[in-house]
């Protein structure tokens, strides 16, 4: 995992044209790790992580997903709770339940459900990302940071954890640590304007002004998000670039009079 992470970071960049090849390699690595987990589970009398549900249970999962999409959190919680009562090792239901609980204003319950999901499948590709999000909602920034970092150990290409780890570090004024994560977040998702803005702010704090200005100019040219443009305008003023700030503010006003 350390070797494959080295492909992604600043000192060993992975060309965009090779990302599909890398994804195939990563799939093979994860398949091997999951097979190892299945073997270990067999010897320790622990069930391997599966979601081999009955059709009735799967119908409940689909209804729960639909309720979650409609932001009917209470119904989603009821349905996913019924699933995990029927099948205590249903990993995706634990994950959905965790997100529904957090969205309903119960991040503590969300954390407990997501930790259960990780117990069922320690190699889950997104569970720790969601755990980090729930821990941050709970006010546990240190726990959230640890969860995001652990997710990136399991899945270095996880955009959510990369973005939010960078955001969390910048929030705590740890810009030198945040910088590679914010840069990588933009590399993984070039449309991620908020990571681009945070990257620019960190560059400014680290006295790398020229690069920060370039990022703000890019936002002025490409972003259609008025709140983002307003925030970028403030960053431009901090950089003593009123002409860029004016461009950003004018565009924000045109988009949202």
Please describe what this structure looks like.
The protein is elongated. Helix 6 (107-120) runs antiparallel to helix 7, helix 8 runs antiparallel to helix 9 (159-171) and helix 12 (209-222) packs antiparallel against helix 13. It contains 14 helices and no strands. Mean pLDDT is 85; it is low at 1-13 and 33-51. It starts with a helix and ends with a helix. It is mainly α and 257 residues long. Helix content is 75%, strand content 0%.
Task: Name a few traits of the molecule.
disordered N terminus, mainly alpha, 14 helices, 257 residues
In short:
75% of the residues lie in helices and 0% in strands. By secondary structure, it is mostly helical.
- Note the beta-strand portion: under 5%
Distance separating the two termini = 49 Å
How many beta-strand elements?
A: 0
> Globular, elongated, flat, extended or rod-shaped: what is the shape?
elongated
Q: How would you classify the helix and strand content by structural class?
A: mainly alpha
């Amino acid at each position: 995992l350390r070797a494959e992470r080295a492909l992604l970071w600043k000192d060993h960049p992975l060309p965009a044209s090779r990302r599909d090849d890398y994804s195939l390699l990563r799939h093979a690595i994860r398949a091997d790790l999951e097979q190892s987990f299945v073997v270990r589970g067999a010897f320790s009398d622990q069930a391997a992580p599966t979601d081999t549900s009955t059709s009735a249970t799967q119908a409940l999962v689909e209804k729960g997903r639909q309720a979650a999409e409609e932001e009917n959190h209470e119904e989603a919680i009821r349905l996913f709770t019924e699933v995990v009562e029927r099948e205590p090792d249903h990993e995706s239901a634990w994950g959905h339940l965790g997100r529904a609980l957090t969205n309903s204003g119960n991040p503590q319950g969300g954390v407990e459900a997501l930790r259960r999901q990780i117990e069922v499948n320690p190699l889950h590709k997104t569970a720790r990302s969601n755990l980090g999000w729930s821990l941050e909602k709970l006010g546990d920034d240190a726990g959230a940071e640890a969860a995001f970092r652990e997710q990136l150990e399991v899945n270095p290409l996880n955009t959510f954890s990369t973005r939010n780890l960078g955001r969390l570090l910048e929030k705590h004024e740890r810009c030198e640590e945040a910088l590679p994560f914010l840069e990588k977040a933009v590399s993984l998702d070039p449309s991620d304007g908020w990571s681009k803005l945070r990257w620019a702010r960190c560059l400014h704090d680290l006295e790398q002004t020229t690069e920060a200005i370039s990022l703000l100019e890019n936002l002025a040219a490409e972003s259609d998000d008025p709140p983002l443009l307003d925030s970028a305008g403030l960053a431009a003023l901090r950089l003593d670039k009123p002409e860029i700030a004016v461009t950003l503010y004018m565009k924000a006003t045109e988009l949202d009079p």
